Amino acid sequence: MSEAPAKPPGPAAVAAAAATIAPYIRHTPLLRAEVDGRPVLLKLEHLQRSGSFKLRGALTALLGGDRPEHVVTASGGNHGLGVATAAGLLGLPATVFVPEAVPETKARRIEEAGARLVRRGGTYAEAAAAATDAAAEPGARYLPAYDHPDVIAGQGTVAAEVVAEAPDVDAVAVAVGGGGLAAGTVLAAGGRVTVAVEPEHCCALHHALAAGEPVDAEVDSVAASALGATRVGELPFAILTAADVHSVLVTDDELLAARERLWDEFRLLVEPAAAVPFAAWLAGRVPGELPCIVLCGANTDR
Fold it and tell me: How many CB atoms lie under 10 A from the CB of residue 61?
């Protein structure tokens, strides 16, 4: 039973999601640090169960609707691992469609979490089309990676934890693929600036903002396995365009250097996508006297 997109959620949905998923997730640490003489907060969401924030949205969606007999999704890796982990926690069978070029670390962990893995197509969009077809079977439910109100609300619980623990934070910077984390951050940030950061050749949101609507975009980055949505979601786009969101781009060289800096300075090992907002901050593209950088995932071979 596939689900049509609904109206965008609001801040109350994030609070409800936090209460719903609290028994299953880790409240990840918030590190106050100083780098190059500047204060910064690092939200260590890469320490989340399943290795990324995606578990939050998957749990919120699966706990918020009618219980399916079978969960089906498509993913570049992290959402699939989040869904596989959530389904395992809830005792549900799951099938995850991934592009053929999915990193082996993510593919292996999806299968280890108990889901059936299906490689299909060269892009996330092709995998999603195959997953949507499979979800048409009776009793199945397709769980989108980002274009779903419950998923967005669940992802917003990351920023909700940040502002509750550090009310003096004045900006939250996140990496963007399909826009679910950024949209959830807007809902939970209490009017603080949300900085949406993307690689310069993998930036569906940046192109959508320029066009005034979601449009297809190229996907060419070392962070593409996590941020490789070819088009930003309709619901995230509606939320992001109604808020004070800063769209920022970084190069692959910048994000890889930022990833090395996180390791050298803090011994934090994250995947390339998670270093994207830190790269923007290092380059001076994130506003605020005390911004928070969300390190969103660590599903990497190194």
Answer: 25
The pLDDT tens digits for 129-160 are 999 999 988 889 999 999 999 999 999 999 99
- Beta-carbon count within 10 A of 302 CB: 7
> 5-50 pLDDT, tens per residue?
578 999 999 999 999 999 999 999 999 999 999 999 999 999 999 9
14 Cα distance to chain centroid:
15
Q: How many helices (H) and strands (E) does the chain have?
A: 13, 10
Angle at 58 between CA 57 and CA 63, to 5 degrees: 100
What length is written for the chain?
302
> Rounded CA gap, 248 and 13, in Å?
27
Q: Is the dihedral of CA 161, 167, 168, 174 positive or negative?
A: positive
Q: Which two tokens stand for residue 1?
A: 């039973």
Residue carrying structure tokens 């830190």: 278
Calpha distance 106→163 (Å, rounded):
30
Could you give the C-alpha distances from 243 to 18, 43, 192, 196, 240, in angstroms and in order?
22, 22, 10, 12, 5
Angle at 202 between CA 198 and CA 207, to 5 degrees: 80
User: In 3D, which of 102, 129, 101, 96 has the Cα closest to residue 115?
Assistant: 96
The pLDDT of residue 104 is 85
Q: Whole-model pTM?
A: 0.93
